[in-house]
Design goal:
Layout: H1 3-8, H2 17-27, H3 34-41, H4 45-56, H5 69-73, H6 78-91, H7 102-122, H8 127-136, H9 139-147, H10 149-156, H11 166-174, H12 178-188, H13 193-200, H14 213-230, H15 234-240, H16 243-249, H17 253-258
Length: 270
Amino acid sequence: MQLSAVLASQFVLPSIPRVVALLLSELEREETDLKRVTHLISQDPALTVRLLQLSNSGYFRMSRRIHSVPECLAIVGLNHVRTMAHASATKASLRAVVGINMQQYWSYSLDVAKVSRSLAGVVRQNQQAAFTAGLIHYVGELVMRLVMPAEMARLDGEIPALDARRAKAERKAFGFNYAEVAAGLARQWLFPEPIVEALACQDTPFLEHAYEPLAGVLHLAAWRGRCKDASLNQREMAVSFPGAVGDVLLLDIDMVLQQDPIDWTSPRSR
């Protein structure tokens, strides 16, 4: 399958059932807590994608692109959010994706979002954009599994989903990878260009003298998320640390590890 065909495919991104249920419950209250709504949507890559799609569409005729869930909720009314939540509950939440553990995917995505936001603050990048990019950075992998499951299953036998070598393996096998899919979709959805570029360059942020700081932040955050997911020890992390990326951003491994969120994704939030 060609990249253009993947980008043109019809698919539904699965949402986290518990988050959708809590969101619907909150939206039914007489006085909805917007902070609670923001928190819930910001845990779910699919809900975040849908809200950003709506906010950046021509419907609202905004003069600038919207980067984050809090910005979206300042524009989109709760009726739109309620409709979106109901659609997620009926169409997407319980759908399985072949070859990937959805609980692991959701947990990993939120962890990467948290570290991205923290690192962005250190290097003076947009923290809201960094959180969004971190949360949705692996959406391309999910989409590829939804629209080309047989091809992805064959590759799984060689390289697991969250392996750091996955991007290169996909490019070798298909001519494109999850980063290009995520960036292509984000561009179609009219997401802000810094987020599109960060997604596109997340695996090779400074290749051939290109300089995209947010992509570098995302690359380091994804490394940290994979380390946590794989339960790597200090020596294993030191060996795998992407030092070339850290050097460009003036971040060494100790500085990156110091940005770990206090509240890594807990089992109860998965």
